[in-house]
């Protein structure tokens, strides 16, 4: 929603001739809002104690999501020639947003906000169960 609102505000005012830069700015602003929401709400139980590393991964994932959305917008606007505001919104804020959001959510879950395994081998063997050996004496001890 932030991306959509900022994009259209920029296209209507200061960046009316630049759909790509409008998208870059709108995604950048929405990325900050998304970081706060995902870190403190959606993935609050899975966030890392290393916020710097997590923030870096979050930014990389969002840049890839931005490439998906702007790629859809670029193809529609410049290659296919659909230059109306409606066409730009459909390609960038519907198709690009859906594809980018699906990518980002999967990447957040599996890369950015994943919890570290409890044991080093837990990641390599997720279905392994600990082996518990029980000792049962086979006979009575001899005593005086």
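Q: What amino acid sequence fits the structure above?
A:
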């Amino acid at each position: 929603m932030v991306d959509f609102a900022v994009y259209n505000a920029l296209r209507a005012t200061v960046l009316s001739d630049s759909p790509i830069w409008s998208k870059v700015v709108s995604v950048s602003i929405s990325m900050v809002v998304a970081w706060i929401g995902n870190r403190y709400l959606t993935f609050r139980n899975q966030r890392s104690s290393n916020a710097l590393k997590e923030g870096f991964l979050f930014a990389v994932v969002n840049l890839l999501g931005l490439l998906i959305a702007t790629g859809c917008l670029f193809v529609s606007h410049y290659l296919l020639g659909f230059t109306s505001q409606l066409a730009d919104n459909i390609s960038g804020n519907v198709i690009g947003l859906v594809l980018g959001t699906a990518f980002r959510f999967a990447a957040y879950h599996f890369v950015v906000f994943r919890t570290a395994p409890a044991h080093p081998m837990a990641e390599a063997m997720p279905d392994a169960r600990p082996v518990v050996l029980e000792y049962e004496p086979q006979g009575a001890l001899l005593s005086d």
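Q: And what stands out in the fold?
A: Residues 2-124 form one domain.
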